Predict the 3D structure of the following.
Amino acid sequence: MRFVPDDRTQRRLALGNLVSMTGTGATMSALVVFLSAAKHLPLGQAASLLATSGLVGVLGAVPVGQLSDRYGARSLAVVTELVCALATVLLLATASAWLLALCLAVRQLATSGNTAARATLMGKLVPPEGRVALRAYQRSVSNIGFSVGALLAALAMSTGTTAALYALLALDAATFCVSALTTSRLPAAGRGARGRGLGRDAIGDRGYLTVSLLNAVHALNRAVVSIGVPLWIVYGSDLPPWTTSAAMILNTVVVIALQARLSRPAKDIAGARRALLAAGALTAVGCAALAAAERAVWPLFVTACLALALGEILGAAAGWTLSYDLAPDQLLGQYQGMWQLIADGSAKAAGPAVIGWTVAAGPAGWALLAGCFAGVAAASPPVVTWASARTRRPARTG
């Protein structure tokens, strides 16, 4: 795919994604500082509000995503983006801790629903063979936007003023509005089936559920990159502190540069099986390199960063194909919500605990984690083959 796609729909998707993720990057690291410095909440209370709202968002992924089957993915995407904008404006206006908590919960719930709706929309706007290429390109765009937003947040927080924090959140609200306008100009994707309440169709699909759980284990790669590597640098190595930022920058650059190119082979289930195998093996190599890095710290550190980035790329590409191709088209919103629930739940709930234990255990912990990823890599192809061979239940249309 070209840097700027020829297709108008894909350009609009990319523009909305770029703008929205710029706002997200601007507020993600600054939100807890905003609650503490501008709204005068104790730091522990601010962190608790963010954690609780995040849990609300994760648990709401399925029921909100299911609405995109009933009312249309484009309509739900626009509505959730406008709700995010309104909740962000109310965060600026209120000083009550309870109202702040409510605004954060609504914002996270709408964000979770928007993620499922946009994934469903992308799945319906292009033919199956083009889905992975589109998602890969959009992910590269997302990383660019997030990086720009994070840079803006760093500049704003360096001023030490609450006015700069208010400006960041105002920018985030504005980006949601722009993204909603861009999304509203996309073609309308057809509605799906109503399905059974609370995601019971997806929960009852053992093949899809099993592959979702398998993907969740692969998704722990993100926790290794975002939590494990920084903690290893600080507590498990003699590397200077600036290497934490260097590792994050390297990961971002590799993903932006290679996500679209390396995702191409995973455009069908057979390619996704191979990509999952490679992703697990690369993540295992990255963990093993960190386990052995006491002897040749710089070469093995770079090896770990590159292997983890490549594992992240291939794992994401495989996940996109499987999340679409193993789901009934008429229940795509519900199934995307379930996929998101399990992947986000693993990253946000299990990820910190697993990585914390690994770092505390030292080289032995990293070696064990490497072995676990190697085992998951070996198990992935037969599990996907079993799930893809299962007969899907027909969608309910009532």
